[in-house]
Amino acid sequence: MAHADVIAAVEDRVFAALASPVRREVLRMLRDQGPQPVAEMAGHFDMARPSFSEHLRVLREAGLVSERKVGRRRYYRLEAVPLHEVQEWLNPFERYWRERLAGLRDVLDSLPDDPEGVSS
C-alpha cells in the first residue's frame, strides 16, 4: 500500500470515528475531564456495555484514544494528534470560506445604504 493510501485510510478511520455523536461526546469528556475508567464513562450513556465498548474500539483503532490497564480497571485518555491532522485537512476549506465571506462583505459594503426606489 502506498504512503498516500495509508494516510487516506487513517483519515477515513478518524472521520468515521468522528461521525458518531456518542464518540464525539466521549472525546469531549476525555478532553474536559482527563483520563477516565471505562465504567465511569459508560455511565453517561444509555446503552449496553458491549455497545459502548464498540465505540471505544472504533476510537482506539482511529488513534483518537489510548487504553491503559490499572489493576482491573481500564482507563482511556484522549490522543489529540489525529484531531490536529483533521484540523490541518480542514484549514484550506476554512480559508476558502473566509475569503468568500470577505468578498461578500466587500460587495455589501459597496452598496448604497439607501438605494433609490426602496420605500420605507
Task: Spell out the blueprint of helices and strands.
Layout: H1 3-18, H2 21-33, E1 36-37, H3 38-42, H4 49-61, E2 65-70, E3 73-78, H5 81-110
Antiparallel strand pairs: 1-3, 2-3
Helix pairs in contact: 1-4
Précis, in short:
The chain has 120 residues and is mostly helical.
Helical percent range? 55-70%
What is the rounded Rg? 22 Å
Major sheet attributes? 3 strands, antiparallel
Topology, number of strands: 3
Low-confidence stretches: none
Report the total helices: 5
Architecture overview:
The longest helix has 30 residues, at 81-110. The N and C termini lie far apart (66 Å). The protein is mainly alpha-helical and 120 residues long. The chain is elongated and about 75 Å long. The chain is built from five helices and three strands, in the order H-H-E-H-H-E-E-H. Strands 1-3-2 form a three-stranded antiparallel beta sheet. Helix 1 (3-18) packs antiparallel against helix 4.
